[in-house]
Design a protein that fits this description.
By secondary structure, the chain is mainly beta. The protein is built from three helices and 21 strands. It is globular. It starts with a helix and ends with a strand. The protein binds 6-O-phosphono-beta-D-tagatofuranose (TA6).
């Protein structure tokens, strides 16, 4: 199957379809600048994004399980059609534990490299969530940016609600020297306080304990300042209402079998999507949302 996909979608010097961990199919994107990315068909899961200097910008747990019925721990899990435990579906929905179809690859005239993947309803999804849908992830790799564009289509004749998150795990040099900026004054639900709502008072969110907050209707640009690596990561969303900031800290790290006990020191999740502002999609309607990630020296 991988050979067939490579024949159909491979682009010399730009796109390759190869066996990844546990021989799971992955798509590698290579930009002429040296930047690169990697996407597993499992969950359309982006597991790596490297800048032109080949520095890894995402976090990927050394303990991650690579299995058809488990999410990969790190990179960008796609949470759909449910975020967290906001309903009866598996935690964060089923999109991240289903195999998506690779549908398009392209090297644009600008040099950007694109891969599109789709997940459509199946007997298995219909049994969990009785709606006909297509969700598409379009990843575009540029020299200094990675763009994730998501489209959801309602292919049925009745409306449905969904939640969606790009649950992105960013690598940081040292969590105590990292800050998330741009959420001051935004209302958030604190997942650690029974979703009690508060207003963020800090211009810089720093970490000294487990942090798990869903920020509602946020500004479209949030930044991570990684002081240890002298780097700023900008997260620019469009068409997406909310953001999540999460670090598991010590006790939760120890409770997660697919996460190293000390790995909280080197990661922070800043997630974008509609996690609390549910989307209602009319029959044959479409929803679009995107997030552009850029990494620059601080
Ligand atoms: O987005 C934060 C969160 O909802 C946390 O509560 C934590 O559960 C995290 O997602 C990871 O969830 P997972 O199902 O991937 O272990």
């Amino acid at each position: 199957m991988i050979d067939t996909l490579q024949t159909k979608f491979g682009i010399p010097g730009a796109v390759a379809v190869l066996p990844g961990k546990n021989n799971m199919p992955r798509v590698t994107l290579a930009h002429r600048s040296g930047a690169s990315a990697e996407i597993y068909l499992h969950g359309a899961h982006v597991t790596s994004w490297r800048n032109a200097a080949s520095e890894e910008l995402f976090f990927l747990s050394r303990e991650s399980v690579w299995a058809a019925d488990k999410p990969i721990r790190g990179g960008i899990p796609i949470c759909f059609p449910q975020f967290s435990n906001h309903g009866p579906l598996p935690l964060h929905g089923f999109a991240r534990i289903n195999e998506w179809a690779l549908t398009q690859t392209e090297r644009l005239g600008s040099g950007e490299v694109v891969a599109a993947l789709q997940l459509t309803d199946s007997d298995a999804t219909m049994a969990l969530w009785p709606h006909r849908f297509t969700i598409e992830l379009r990843a575009t790799l540029a020299e200094a940016a990675l763009t994730l564009a998501v489209q959801v289509k309602n292919n049925g004749d009745k409306p449905f609600d969904f939640e969606l998150a790009l649950h992105t795990y960013f690598g940081v040099g040292e969590i105590q020297r990292a800050a998330v900026c741009g959420l001051k004054g935004v209302t958030f639900s604190d997942s650690l306080k029974n979703n009690a709502q508060e207003v963020e008072a800090r211009q810089e969110i720093r970490f000294d304990q487990e942090t798990d907050r869903v920020y509602l209707n946020t500004p479209d640009c949030v930044r991570i300042r990684d002081e240890a690596r002298n780097r700023i990561i900008a997260i620019q969303k469009s068409g997406m209402a909310d953001a999540v900031v999460w670090n598991p800290w010590i006790a939760k790290s120890q409770r997660m079998a697919d996460f190293g006990d000390d790995e909280y020191l080197r990661m922070v999740c800043v997630e974008t999507g509609n996690m609390a502002t549910r989307v209602n999609l009319a029959p044959h309607g479409q929803w679009h949302g995107s997030t552009v990630l850029t990494a620059q020296p601080a």
